[in-house]
């Protein structure tokens, strides 16, 4: 009886280890991650509005049709990136992802507290080279450190009603990301 219970416990433990290692390895093994799907549609360091979401034909899985979206594939090897995104009427958010789709920073229009979201994206080494200016405060210049040199910036604007989608798209069209 005890021997049978030990075998069952060992099998459950081994199954848990295999399951956990498989779940943790999936993002690195995926061939169609977000960066790979968006590479043919976007240029590096350029904000590109995404096409409207249609059921069954989404560019990315689980995209909400109430949001207009724009993407910037960034490469910081040429220097820091400046992002300027005007906010829409309802809600605007900016999310930063590494090359392997790990979210490392997010901000929305309410947290920014302004009519535009302006920030600088750079690596830790580039941030160390930025001279400290006593007249420029942290509130004046938002600096985000990217853990990797390449990744994605996803900008989303909410259209609470279908008739407001053109306004949300217009806000996204005015966004820029450039070195």
Estimated share of beta-strand residues: 25-35%
Number of domains: 2
Helix content: 25-40%
- How far apart the termini lie comes to 68 Å
Spell out the CATH superfamily of the largest domain: Domain of unknown function DUF1254
Task: Please tell me how large the radius of gyration is.
Answer: 21 Å
Low-confidence stretches: none
Gross morphology is globular
Q: How many strand segments?
A: 9
Provide the CATH topology of the largest domain: Immunoglobulin-like
The CATH class designation of the largest domain is Mainly Beta
The CATH architecture of the largest domain can be given as: Sandwich
Which strand order does the major sheet show?
Answer: 1-2-8-4-5
Structural class: alpha+beta
The biggest sheet amounts to:
5 strands, antiparallel
> H/E series, N to C?
HHEEEEEHEHEEHE
Rounded average pLDDT: 85
Oligomer: single chain
Describe the protein in words.
The protein has 179 residues and is α+β, with helices and mostly antiparallel strands. It folds into 2 domains: 30 residues; 145 residues, Domain of unknown function DUF1254 (Immunoglobulin-like, Sandwich), CATH 2.60.40.1610. The protein is 28% helix and 31% strand. The chain is built from 5 helices and 9 strands. The strands form 2 sheets. The chain has a 5-stranded antiparallel β-sheet. The protein has a 4-stranded mixed β-sheet with strand order 7-6-3-9. β4 and β5 form a beta hairpin. The longest helix has 28 residues. The radius of gyration is 21 Å and the shape is globular. The N and C termini lie far apart (68 Å). The model has no long low-confidence stretch (mean pLDDT 85).
